C-alpha cells in the first residue's frame, strides 16, 4: 500500500503530474481494498497539502535538509511525517514501514531515515508549538503550506489576521455538498412521498450522515461513505454533488423558463444543469468547451439528470463567433482562473506563484468581451471565478465596464441571502469568503446589457 503512495508522489514530484491524475492512474486495476484506497488517497493528498509544513519539521531535526535528499528518501520521510504528525497511525509501524521502503528504493539511506523519523516522533509537538507563536509572511507560508505570493496577496487585501482566518479555513478538508434535482420525481413505488423525504430515506438506508442547509433550498452537507457516485439515487439523477459556491453564479443569473442561455466554459456541466433545472427544462442552453472529452462530461451529466435542453458543442471562448451575435438572453461566464478559492480541492494550486498566473486577467477580459457581444440588448450575464484575487475579479470587471459603457452592474442583494452564503459585497460585486461559512472562495457579479 505504501509503495503505491511512493509511486504516486514520485509522479507528482518528479513527473509533475496532477495528484488526482496520478492517483487515478496508479489505483486503476489495483487489488487494494476500499479501506486501503481511502488510506492511500488521504496520505497522498495530505502529504501534498502540508508539504511546506512537513519539510519545515524535517529540516528542524535533520542534518541533511530536504532539498539535498534524493527524491525517494524525501518522499518516504514526507509520507511518514504526515502519518506521524497528522494521522493516528502507530509510530512504530510508520517508522518500520518507512525503513522497509527505504531498503527497497534507496538502501544506503535506511539508517538515516530511521534516525530522522525517531527525532520527529519525539520533537514535533515542540516544533509546532514554536511555529504557532510566530507571525508574518514566512510563518503563515509554513503553517498553512501555501506560496508566499498567496500569503502576501491576502495580507495586502485583507490584513494579516483575516488572511490567516482564510488560510485556516482553506486548510480544512473540503466538505461535500449535495443538492436535489428539482426536476426529479419520486419513483412510482414511493408515490405519496415528497422528493425531500425520499432522498433523505435513501441517505439513511445507505448509512450516510447528512444535514440539510437552511439555504439554498434542498441542499445537504453530507459525510460520504464509500464511493458516493455508486449510490442509486446519484446514478438515477435524483441528486448531484455541487459546492454551494458553484451554485451561486446561476442563482444570481436567475434564468427563467424559455430563456436562451450560453455557458462558455461549461465542463463538467454543473452550472448548465442547474440553470436547466431553474428553467424547468424549457428553453435552450448552448454549453461550450474546447475538448471533446469535456463535452462528453457535459452530455453524460445532462443525461443522468434528465436534462434535454443543453446543446454541448466545441467553441473556444477566446475566439469571437459572429454567428452568435445577440442570440442569447443570458450568459454564464465562469472563466479559467488561478483557483485560489479552491486550494483545498486541488492541492497543487497552493504553491502557485503570481508569475504563473499573470496572463489570466488578459484571457478573462477577452472572454468576457466576446460573450458580451452574444447577449441581446436587455440580456444579463454573470462573470465568476473560483479565486480570491482582485486582479482576476474586481479589476477585470472594472476594466470591462470602462471599455463597455453599454453595461451596468445589477445589484442582487435583495434576491439572494448573501449572509447565509458567507458572502461580502463591494459595489454589488459578490465574494464568498471561505472563513465565514466554510464554502469555497468564489467571486461573481451580474452585468446587464443596456444598449
Q: Which secondary structure elements does this structure contain, and how are they paired or packed?
A:
Layout: H1 2-13, H2 19-27, H3 34-49, H4 51-61, H5 71-86, H6 91-105, H7 110-132, H8 137-144, H9 148-158, H10 160-171, E1 176-180, H11 195-205, E2 209-212, E3 219-223, H12 232-235, E4 239-241, H13 244-253, E5 260-263, H14 270-278, E6 284-289, H15 292-304, E7 310-314, E8 328-334, H16 360-374, E9 375-385, H17 394-403, E10 407-410, H18 418-421, E11 423-426, E12 429-432, H19 434-437, E13 442-449
Parallel strand pairs: 5-6, 5-8, 6-7, 8-9
Antiparallel strand pairs: 1-3, 1-4, 2-3, 9-13, 10-13, 11-12, 12-13
Helix pairs in contact: 1-2, 1-3, 1-5, 3-5, 4-5, 4-7, 5-6, 5-7, 6-7, 8-9, 9-10, 13-14, 16-17
